[in-house]
Amino acid sequence: MIIETERLILRQWKDSDIDPFVKLNLDEETMKFFPSTYARDVSEKLINREIERISKDDIGLLAVELKETGEFIGFIGLARPSYETHFTPCTEIGWRIYKDFWGKGYASEGARAVLDFAFEELGLEEVVSFTSRLNLASIRVMEKIGMVRDTDGDFKHPMVEDDSELKDHVLFRVRSVNG
User: What PANTHER family does the database record attribute to this sequence (predicted)?
Assistant: First the structure.
């Protein structure tokens, strides 16, 4: 599965993505809205899980590279959370981009293309996204790609410690125009 935009290629993972992905997940600024950074083995397991998910389900977190240079810059894609909340089961859109590439519109550009794929190719009726209420940059991306906050859907993330400032999450939704 490959999704192309004007500046990006979203694709299956390659061995050459491992080291830059590990570096991405060890960066404290990139991971500041997660409970912790990810050790190498966690990043490698995540890649292996996504390779399998993409080949089996046609959904997953896709590696993102710049068309112009072929450089790996992060991931954008779809997932189905394995934990229970009031809005699961669901399909979630998410992204993680190297901080050197923040503010250039890459997350929004790739996420719009993934939403198009979700609605047009997979026939999904709705996609959600959520983040810590403190993550204003991701909230802006959600708004830019046409998602709307469901204030009644905000929740305490079950995978975040109760005493963490990251516990409170905002929920955004977008529905297919055909849905």
Answer: GNAT FAMILY, PUTATIVE (AFU_ORTHOLOGUE AFUA_3G00765)-RELATED-RELATED (PTHR43792), N-ACETYLTRANSFERASE DOMAIN-CONTAINING PROTEIN (PTHR43792:SF1)
Kindly compute the dihedral angle of the four CA atoms of residues 148, 122, 105, 155, in this order, to the nearest 10 degrees.
40
Q: Domain span at residue 25?
A: 3-175
**pLDDT tens digits, one per residue of 133-157:** 999 999 999 999 999 999 999 999 9
Bridge partners (DSSP) of residue 170 are: 131
Sequence-distant (≥ 6) Cβ neighbours of residue 173 within 8 angstroms? 126, 127, 128, 147, 148, 150, 153
pLDDT in tens, 66-110: 999 999 999 999 999 999 999 999 999 999 999 999 999 999 999
What value, to the nearest 5°, has the Cα angle with vertex 101 and ends 100 and 106? 170
Q: Which long-range contacts (CB under 8 A, 24 or more apart) does 31-37 make?
A: 33/131, 33/132, 33/134, 33/135, 33/138, 33/166, 34/166, 35/159, 35/160, 35/161, 35/164, 35/166
**CATH, residue 122:** 3.40.630.30
Question: Where does residue 123 rank: exposed (0-12), middle (13-18), buried (19+ CB within 10 A)?
Answer: exposed
Phi, psi of 95 (to 5 degrees): -155, 155
